[in-house]
Request: fold
Amino acid sequence: MNNNKLNYLVLHCTATPEGRPVTKDDIIRWHTNPVHLGGRGWNRPGYADMIYLNGDLVNVIPFNTDDFVDQWEISNGVVGLNGNSRHIVYAGGMDTENKKPKDTRTKEQLEALEVYVKYTIKRHPKILVLGHNEAPNAHGKACPSFNVGEWLRSIGVDDANIYNKQVEDLSAGALAKADKKEDLQTETAETNSTETEA
Ligand SMILES: [Zn+2]
Reply:
């Protein structure tokens, strides 16, 4: 069975106000605390890595460097894609009033995310990079609060690695297939989660 290939790098924001620090511990608490303690009650956090306001890259869920997503590497970023994805989040994504989605990436976060994306592509030359809002199950989310395809092109990422250049090639069928595999994987991996996206 070969349904756990790492196909996607999905970019997220924490959907927190501009300039407010968010840590790995916050993310773990928000996602895995029981619902009655204010968490989402997931068995795993939603992101593999995160980028702090100062550009620091912090690992949330360890992973190896092969082209597969093992059960222990899964992060719950997007319903239906988790078994084939790695999820990276930057702290921010909302305006200071916490009312409107906003690209709040600091200069340091921009640099770190660029290096991260390019390094991930070097490691996994066939990976497709997308924003959470482009995923089939995005449910109208604004995350990560910027146009990922446009930004990727602006930093010189090859079209072959840009998801929204690939939509036609992937075709609905290929995506539906990926979804189905995911759902199966999600069911086994997410024994105590009903919702699995961040
Ligand atoms: Zn997201």
The CA atoms of residues 46 and 125 lie 24 Å apart. The chain has one domain: 8-189.
